[in-house]
Amino acid sequence: MSKDIRALKVRLYPNREQERILLNTLVQCTELYNSLLDHCKECHENGGKHPSAYDMMKLLPPMKRERPIMKTVYAQVYQDVCLRVSRAFDGFFRRVKEKKEDAGYPRYRSLSRYDSFTYPQSGFILSKDHLILSPGKQRIRIRGYRKMDGRIKTCTVIRKGCGPDYRWEAAITYETEKRNVDDIAAAKGGRSIGIGMGLSKLIVTSEGKEYPNGKEFIKAERQLSKILRKMSRYEKGTPERERYRQRLFHAFENIHNKRKGKIYEIVNELIERYDMIFIEDLEIRKMMDNSKGKGMRKSYRDAGWRKFLFVLGYKAEEAGVTVRTVDPAYTSQRCSECGTLVPKDLSIRRHQCPCCGLDVDRD
After folding, report:
1. 256, 229, 225, 223: which is closest to 241 by C-alpha?
2. Closest listed residue to residue 36, CA positions, set 107, 125, 113, 129
3. Closest CA to 23 of 117, 88, 87, 105
4. CA dist., res. 59 & res. 36, Å (int)
5. Rounded (5°) CA angle 360-361-362
6. What is the mean pLDDT of each run of 10 residues along the chain (363 residues)?
7. Is the alpha carbon torsion for 325, 329, 335, 339 positive or negative?
8. Is 72:28 a contact under the CB 8 Å cutoff?
9. Angle at the Cα of 275 (from 271 to 278), degrees rounded to 5?
10. Residue 278: which residues within 8 A CB-CB, separation 6 or more?
11. How far apart are CA 118 and CA 44, in angstroms?
């Protein structure tokens, strides 16, 4: 049976000593990343072959002898740093080969731009209430744990927000067996539905059910503007400015969480009830570029269509639900009752058919 790779994200609550150790790990990873970048540049300047990730891993033992502080970080975390440098150069060489105008040579990382480190195989133990990290067997309290049916593969510790009050998370990936799609679909009785996406109403189903658009960003604009105005009064690097940066982070995080919660609520309801979902194959980027004014583009972003389609796609695959896309041409113009084409512009929000008399929302 084929395998699936899934992820679980949990919130970390380190104490002061544990947070100091996590920050030290990020510092050591940042310095190693920049050192390996220097090594790769030196190889290029001397006309040598570009070092692979495994070539860079061979440099770790002598570097640890020269800098004993590197021994305070788990060895496999450094191996992941080597892989990150290698992937950065692989992307650069690919862009050069494609003759892109701005290939983007890999850049040095400051501590503010290096926000995560990964345990690629071992060095961590996950339980219901704690995440234990090596070295030192730190027992960090967690929240958001759920049972995982499969073999745990990697653990990535992520720092979010601004100092000194960071928010810490851990992304756990695990391998599990794919579920039997036919059995899941048969249990739902073969029900199907069509859905349309809009701005005033996020989702409208073919059964007439409407899911309103929360417009979280538009509602929070006044609060965000107030924070930005106050933050602009202080110089960069001052404690006052960092305090407002933290408030700004929490405001955006609140918007993201509300939008995410609404999307998951809609997707879960659709997947529980239907085994086949039809949706318009919209070119979202093209629609945004052709939109009438800045306000409409803002509404497209605030609706979170891309996020909805992404969540629907992977949740449907996980649950054995089929998602089919249909050509969006004339779907708001053609009558669903008799098939008559009734032209209308965006300002007309209801479909009123002159032939059969159908009067419904245009979506």
Report:
1. 229
2. 107
3. 117
4. 9
5. 110
6. 81 94 95 95 86 93 93 94 94 87 87 93 91 90 88 93 86 81 56 81 83 85 91 88 89 90 90 86 73 71 84 84 77 70 69 72 63
7. negative
8. yes
9. 85
10. 192, 193, 194, 195, 206, 323, 324, 325, 326
11. 28
* 131 and 12 Cβ atoms separated by less than 8 Å: yes
Contact 117, 29 (CB under 8 A): yes
Q: How far apart are CA 171 and CA 11, in angstroms?
A: 9
Record the tokens describing residue 2, joined without a space.
Answer: 């084929």
Helices (H), ranges, 149-304: 181-187, 216-231, 239-273, 284-289, 294-303
Pick from 137, 121, 113: nearest CA to 27: 113
* C-alpha 182, offset from chain centre: 30
47 Ramachandran zone, left/alpha/beta (phi>0; psi -120 to 50): left
- Rounded CA-CA distance 131/145 in Å is 10
Q: Distance of CA 112 to CAs 115, 121, 231, 238, Å?
A: 7, 26, 18, 15
> Around Cβ 207, how many Cβ atoms within 10 Å?
10
Q: What would the two tokens of residue 187 be? A: 């249990």
Asked if 130 contacts 140 with a C-beta cutoff of 8 angstroms, the reply is yes
Rg value, the chain, Cα: 26
Type of residue at 161: G
Measured distance CA(141)–CA(152) in Å, rounded: 19
The Cα 330–Cα 156 span in angstroms is 46
Asked if 32 and 209 count as a contact pair (C-beta separation under 8 A), the reply is no
**Rounded Cα distance, 208 and 195, in Å:** 9
- Around Cβ 14, how many Cβ atoms within 10 Å? 21
What's the CA gap between 248 and 251, in Å, rounded?
5
What is the reported pLDDT for 216? 86
Rounded CA separation 336/69 (Å): 70
- CB 258, CB 306: distance < 8 Å: no
Q: How many other β-carbons are positioned within 10 Å of the β-carbon of residue 277?
A: 22
Mind giving me the DSSP string for 41-54?
HHHHHTT-PPP-HH
